[in-house]
Amino acid sequence: MNKSLKIYLIFLFVLLIGVVALESNKPKVINWNATYSINDKIPFGLYVFDKEMKSLLQPDTLTTIYVTPYEFFDDFYNYDTLVNNYTTSGTFLAINQYGNFDDESLKELLYFSSHGNTVFLSMKDVPKMLKDSLKFEIQSNFTSPDSTLFSFTQQKLGTEKYNLSEGLGYNYFSKIDTATTAVLGYQTYKDSMANFIKIPYKQGHFIIHLQPTAFTNFHLLKDKNYEYAEKVLSYIPKGNVFWYIKDISEGHISQNPLRFIFSQPALKAAWYLFIGGFLVFIIFNAKRKQRIIPIITPIENTTVEFTKTIGNLYFQEGNHHTIIDKKIIYLLDKIRRDYLLDTTVLDEKFIQKLQQKTGKNSEDLKKLFYKINQHRKGNYASVENDLVEINTLIEKIFN
User: What CA–CA distance (Å, rounded) separates 242 from 215?
Assistant: First the structure.
């Protein structure tokens, strides 16, 4: 390890210690995101409500729903023409920022309620299909009060007003069917506006509450606000409760392997410092540290030059017989390898097979093998002329 590398590492170590010391003395940043997740202990999570739910509701049975309402309740419906009813009953409960239901699930909730059941929704807004079916409208008050007072219309719940201040929604019921709809509660800021209603639907009911933040960790643990949540939930009939947590169980938890590191400010800062230091280390140590590898020139292929030299040697010596024999040997070997023909007898039958496989001119083939056969028999007038003719025919046919 050279001296400069040691200096870099010492500098990074000291910097890391400094960052950790600063982060350890830094007040923890509060996450005010409204996740409504049963796994979140942040102010606007539902962790406390999830743990205290049974004591708040005291249901006969509590069933958590991880699928859509349509998928869940359709399995409990008896389609027998003599029955046409659900094999279970109770209250469907959903607490979330907004109602992210698909159309089939909304139809299922309406149908579930029409068979004598209750649907309890606590959310800042509800889907348009429910507004149209239950004949109510919701509007927003765009002022942002520091706090709002919440109260109930039923005298048996007392006249106390609860002061909620953080994470509120400013929606209210601007239009309801007063002939059938009962107002259960108000939110007051200058004016009183309905935020909690009960609507009959055929044989059942819809109970809609527009302040889901009342059930979050922040308000359940602050002052006596838990009493407000208890009184809102007291309108849920005794019996079975089906709690819809499909969108608030795992949906807000990141699946990133570094999720925990990024969730802790100190670890997050240390991670970024490590990445930055690693990049600096790479930049300053990117130069070559090994000797230059010499270039080795590949060995040249001198086969052609060697062949030419041997050929010239034979030619200069006047050994034309040997050159012709070599030419013939090379040609017949090529025919055996490339065309898989027996070259023992170079007759008409052999020439015909070779012509069929090569597609060469039959007259040229006959002339070539005639010359070869004559040479083998020793019938030649001039060896030098035979060499030229045989070589010319070979090049013409096979090159």
Answer: 17
The H or E element containing residue 91 is strand 91-95
Q: How far apart are CA 192 and CA 190, in angstroms?
A: 7
Q: Give residues with Cβ within 8 angstroms of 320, minimum separation 6.
A: 314, 383, 384, 386, 387
What are the tens digits of pLDDT across the range 282-303? 776 666 555 667 788 877 766 5
Structure confidence by residue, pLDDT tens digits, 353-378: 888 888 888 888 888 888 888 877 77
Any domain includes 393: yes
Contact 248, 37 (CB under 8 A): yes
Residues 242 and 73: their CA atoms lie apart, in Å, by 10
**Which residues constitute the domain of residue 372?**
303-398
181 and 319, same domain (yes or no): no
**341: which residues sit within 8 A by CB, 6+ positions away?**
335, 350, 353, 354, 357
The residues, any chain, with a CB within 8 Å of residue 240's CB and separated by 6 or more, are: 59, 60, 61, 62, 63, 88, 89, 90, 91
107-149 pLDDT, tens digit per residue, is 999 999 999 999 999 999 999 999 999 999 999 876 656 678 9
Q: Note whether 123 and 99 are within 8 A (CB).
A: yes
Distance, CA of 393 to CA of 399 (rounded, Å) = 10
DSSP 296: P
**Domain finish residue from 237, 265, 296:** 296
Query: Is residue 268 located within the same domain as residue 307?
Result: no
